[in-house]
Structures are given as C-alpha cells and as structure tokens.
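Here is an idea for our session: we take a single protein and study its fold together. To get us started, please write out a protein record for me. Start from the sequence, derive the backbone structure tokens from it, and show both lines together. Go ahead whenever you are ready, and we will take it from there:
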Amino acid sequence: MTPSGHGAGWGRNRSAGRRVPPPMDRSNTLSTRALLLVVLVAVALVAAYLLGGRGPAAPAAADDQRAPAQAPRELTMTGTGEASAVPDRLGFTAHVHVTRPDLDDALAAANATMARVQAALVEHGVDERDLQTTGLSMDPVYAYHPYDPPTIVGYRVSQRARVLVQPLSEGGAAVGAAVEAGGNDVRVDSLRLLVSDADAVMARARTAAVDEARAKAEEYAAASGQDLGDVLTLREVRAVPVPTPVVPDAALAYRRASDVPIRAGREEGKVTVRIVWALG
C-alpha cells in the first residue's frame, strides 16, 4: 500500500525498497549546456587570436615606404674674369650747317661743304665705307617783329655724317682735316674711342671667369677630401662690356682739332659666372 501523502514526490523501488529522486527539469539542462557551449567558443576564439599573434610578422611598413634617396652632393662657386684692350679706332660725327636767303642756294652750299669734308677725310686714310650720312634737315629762318607776324628771311640746311677712323693714331689728323675743309660751317662732336674686336675681349673675360671659379672649386673639394665631378650648370651672372669712352665736346673748341691730343687708355670688360659641380 502506497502512502497518499508521498506519492507525488518520491517513489519506492519495488525491488530494492529504496527511494529514487525525481527526474531533473529539461529546460534547466538545456540552459546549462548552451552556456557551456558559449564559454567553449569564447575560449577557442581567444586561443586562436593568441596563437595567430605568434605567427609570421606582417611586412613592415618601411618595406612599402622606402627611405628617400640621398640628395646629390654639389658644390657651387662663382668666378669673375677681366680682360682689357686699348681702343684702336675713333668714331665721331661731322655736322654741316649752312644758312642762305634761298633754299636752293642753302642746299647747294651744304652739299658742297659736306663733299669737301668727306674728301678731306678720305685723303687722311678714312675708308669711304666708314663714311655714312645720318641726317638731313631744311628749316626756314624767321625774323620776329614786335607788332607784326614773323617773316622768313632765309633757310638753314643741316647735314650729318658718321665717321670711323682707323687706326686711332690717324684720328686727330682726320678730325683736323674735316674742320679745316668745312671752315665755320662744320662742327665735330660725339668723339668715341672704340675697340675693334670687343667680342674677343669679352670672350677672354669669360674664360678667365670660368678658370677662377674652377680653381676655387678644386681648392674647396680638395680641402674637404672630395673629387670635383662634372659641371651640372653654368650661368653668366653679370657682364660689363668694354666701355666706349667719349671725348668731351669742350676739347673740340679749338679752331684746329688736330691741336687736341687724342689718347686712349686701357679699357676692361668684366664677366661673372656661377657654376655648379657634382662631387664624387
């Protein structure tokens, strides 16, 4: 006979006479298993992460970002060269001014005077190719009255020619001959002392400038224990051409210009260069 008060909670083993516990709730069992599974998965992920960190290292960023190339070694130096020459030619301008009451007479007189001047220059060794007419003008000459309009009283004709005398030693005589041939109707001005080959003088100055820059560069390279390499750039920084001295017009105030000594001094051209060399 089974007691009515205990039939729901415990049963009695018929063969052994022992009580057995009731079966566990299935919902509690499933929750415990799910929790255990989540823990195992988390542990597996942590282990995988730790093991993966000990694997081969990823390529360093430095492999993709290569170090910048070293700047080439250079040496920059400047040099100044000078070259000189003595002027060997004389240039000047001869003016003829004639005033006559009639324009035709004034033009004819001016032509005759300029022709005499040019002939005298040719006789003193001036080449005809070095005589060049550079100007001609014809202007009326007015007389002004206090109460009346101005009236034309004549005409003034002017002619201008450029002259080149070489060698310079003949310059004074040529100027004197021009003034003597033209008399009071001729005037000489703009005397210039010229070097016949100024380009050659500047070429020597450039060579001297490069030589000076190279000499200084070799000194600095040797002092720093390096070798001077090829020229990378060369630039002309400044050039002062051979000057053209002008004889003051006051020196020609004399009646005979040949009495005025024309003496030329040495004139210089100057060049400055900047050169960049590679260092070995």
